[in-house]
Specification:
The chain is mainly alpha-helical and 312 residues long. Helix content is 51%, strand content 6%. A hairpin with a 3-residue loop joins strand 1 and strand 2. The relative contact order is 0.11.
């Protein structure tokens, strides 16, 4: 990894760029010095332009490829392109880590455009700032804005209908890993979440013990499994109770899911539960603080809350 953070790649890119420009200029110079000579005497009635010579390629018996020098206008444009590239590299980044005289970066441009956009739309969010979550949820204009924010920032993981996917929670039900109050939703969107379930295979015991425990976990939500093996796995559930609780009802303080409601974030079935015990899971939701403004997070939080609290 040290090679990727050293100065080597900066020099490599810079030298490669300069050599490419020099090679283009050299190629143009060499080609402009070339003189063409006729490959053969002109036949009676042939186009005089053939006197400059041909490449020797003939198609359709009489169609010959000329060997004319580059047109002056084309060579001029090529020279302008080379000069432009040199001027560009003086003022803008392109030579490795050299930032150019203007100090332009895509990050700076993004931040400037974001600040300008935030300032332009600030009045839109300001009129909603004093409203509670319930009031925002009942406001069609606020929910229209919230829907656009959700589609642009959340739908990639939770789906456009907010019903989630494998590893991404359904936001339209009342099953919440960290709590579904307006305050908790706002906290989740702002700070993000990192829900980690470590591999528990070593703590549980043998492969048979893991299978028995998986059957017991399925039995907590009446989701099938072998009753005999579930009974054998009951005592092994003590290693899970620290997070999921002694009854398996979960713990929103640490994001441990409820195992008794039949809702499976990473897939349903004995094989899926065994895989979870053996390999664990790591669910990451990135923080939106810094990406979205406070006004945007306020409306987005209300929109997510209203998805599972819609009026009949």
């Amino acid at each position: 990894m040290s090679d990727f953070v050293s100065d080597f790649w900066s020099y490599y890119v810079g030298i490669a760029v300069i050599l490419s420009i020099v090679a283009c200029a050299w190629l143009l110079w060499v080609m402009s010095r070339g003189k063409t000579t006729p490959n053969r005497p002109l036949k009676e009635g042939e186009d005089p332009r053939l006197a400059v010579g041909t490449t020797g390629h003939v198609w359709d018996e009489t169609l010959e490829e000329l060997n004319n020098p580059l047109p002056g206008w084309w060579a001029g444009l090529f020279i302008i392109t080379i000069v432009f590239s040199l001027v560009y590299l003086v003022f803008y980044p392109g030579l490795g880590s050299f930032q150019g005289q203007f100090g332009w970066t895509s990050v700076k441009q993004y931040e400037a455009e974001k600040q300008a956009t935030d300032a332009a739309v600030a009045p839109l969010y300001a009129k909603f700032a004093s409203l509670t979550t319930e009031q925002l949820a009942a406001n069609p204009d606020a929910m229209a804005v919230g829907e656009r924010l959700f589609l642009n920032n959340c739908a990639q993981c939770h789906g456009s209908d907010a019903r989630g996917n494998k590893g991404f929670p359904n936001l339209t039900d009342n099953d919440w890993l960290y709590g579904g109050t307006p305050e908790k939703i706002h906290e989740t969107i702002t700070k993000g979440r990192n829900g980690v379930m470590p591999s528990m295979a070593a703590a549980v015991g043998s492969a048979d013990d893991v299978t028995n425990l998986a059957n017991y976990v399925l039995s907590l939500s009446q989701s099938g499994g072998d009753p005999l093996k579930a009974n054998l796995g009951r005592e092994k559930f003590v290693v899970c109770a620290a997070c999921h609780g002694p009854e398996g009802k979960g713990n929103q303080a640490v994001g441990a899911p409820n195992l008794t409601d039949g809702i499976w974030l990473y897939g349903f079935g004995l094989d899926k539960v065994i895989a979870a015990i053996n390999g664990g899971h790591n669910g990451m939701m990135p923080a939106q603080e810094g990406k979205l403004s406070a006004g945007q997070i306020n409306i987005l939080s209300a929109y997510v809350w209203h998805l599972s609290n819609k009026a009949p």
